[in-house]
Amino acid sequence: MQLQQYGTNKEGRPCYDPRGMYKLYIYGNRKGIRSSRKLAESCKVNLEVKWMMCGAEPDFRTVSDFRKDNIDSLKEIFHEFNRRISSAVEWGFCSVDGSKFQADNSKDNNFTKNKLDDRIKWLNAHTDEYLWILKEMDEQEELEEVPDKLTREVIEGKL
Fold first, then answer.
1. How far apart are CA 154 and CA 85, in angstroms?
2. Where are the domains of the chain?
3. DSSP 8-state symbol, 10
């Protein structure tokens, strides 16, 4: 996994820990937060995110730039995260004490090797789609950010 190095200069603020930024994107993926601005806001407001980021509060541009610069490693991490989550479920043996249960082995409830391969392909495509949506959200927010002309009337109207 190749990381883009931030803050290699001697002067200025030190760089944000890449592990924290990856955690932030995994958090956003699990909570359905796709906007870099909302992820940055979560770093300031949400206690669990503050703890996860060790108190760091990156702005939305830093969050967005991190995604743009490390898109390949983000894909790898999303795949690894999904793999670990799926391996955390134990498929061991289960014994029942004489209780009777109705069996339900419909086509949707059983998996073959081909079905699992198709599911993995779907997850990979879903990851690519998710990262594309993140990029689109950032571009849309940048367009909304810059007003055409700030005149006295426009500012007074917004106030």
1. 51
2. 18-89+114-158
3. S
In this structure, are residues 159 and 151 in contact, taking their beta carbons and an 8 Å threshold?
no
Q: Spell out the residues 6+ positions from residue 123 whose beta carbon is closer than 8 angstroms to its own.
A: 79, 82
Name residue, tokens 């495509």.
Answer: 125
Predicted TM-score (pTM) of the model is 0.55
110-122, pLDDT tens digit by residue?
Answer: 777 888 888 888 8
Cα–Cα–Cα angle for 23, 29, 33, rounded to 5 degrees:
105
d(Cα 131, Cα 21) in Å, to the nearest integer? 15
CA-based torsion, 12, 14, 16, 18: positive or negative: positive
| DSSP reduced 3-state for 11 | coil
